[in-house]
């Protein structure tokens, strides 16, 4: 499985962006998908997760109510709609595929495949 993340860019505080993650392979629908982010000098952190059937989504507290994760298995794609962006959202965003155990969706080591990252910069 290969992943290609896109949609990053420079946006003003309060603005919106939509990130996309396109996956190759016919097994995409069997994987859960997550977005992580990493700011300079900081550790990679969990942002959002969506299960295989899209039946459940989870968010980091810092983005809850502002970000929405969704997936379109017919297009092998996952999206992260980001609204009300803040300067602290500035980071490189990565999509990841895996089959984490139920409670470990925020653990990066649970994910087998990673995209190359897309940069999001929010100016104040």
Features of the shown structure:
124 residues; mainly beta; 7-stranded mixed sheet; 4-stranded antiparallel sheet
Provide an overview of this structure.
This protein is mainly beta. The chain contains no helices and eleven strands. It has strands spanning 3-6, 9-12, 17-23, 32-38, 45-50, 57-59, 67-72, 77-82, 91-98, 111-114, 118-123. The strands form two sheets. Strands 2, 4, 5, 6, 9, 10 and 11 form a seven-stranded mixed β-sheet that branches.
Give me the secondary-structure category.
Answer: mainly beta
**Count of alpha/pi helices:** 0
Question: What is the H/E order?
Answer: EEEEEEEEEEE
Beta content: over 45%
Largest sheet properties: 7 strands, mixed
Uncertain regions spanning at least 5 consecutive residues: none
Number of strands: 11
> What number is the mean pLDDT?
94
Distance between the termini: 37 Å
Q: How much helical structure, as a percent, in the residues?
A: under 10%
Whole-angstrom Rg: 13 Å
Principal-axes shape call: globular
Question: What is the fold's blueprint, element by element?
Answer:
Layout: E1 3-6, E2 9-12, E3 17-23, E4 32-38, E5 45-50, E6 57-59, E7 67-72, E8 77-82, E9 91-98, E10 111-114, E11 118-123
Parallel strand pairs: 2-11
Antiparallel strand pairs: 1-3, 3-8, 4-5, 4-9, 5-6, 7-8, 9-10, 9-11
């Amino acid at each position: 499985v290969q992943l290609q993340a896109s949609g990053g860019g420079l946006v003003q505080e309060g603005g919106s962006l939509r990130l996309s993650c396109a996956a190759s392979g016919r097994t995409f629908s069997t994987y859960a998908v997550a977005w992580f982010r990493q700011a300079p000098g900081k550790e990679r952190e969990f942002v959002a997760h969506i299960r295989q059937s899209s039946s459940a989504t989870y968010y980091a507290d810092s983005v809850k109510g502002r970000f929405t994760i969704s997936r379109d298995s017919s297009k092998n794609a996952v999206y992260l709609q980001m609204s009300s962006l803040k300067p602290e959202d500035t980071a490189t965003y990565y999509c990841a595929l895996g089959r984490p155990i139920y409670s470990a969706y925020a653990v990066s080591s649970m994910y087998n495949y990673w995209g190359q990252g897309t940069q999001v910069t929010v100016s104040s």
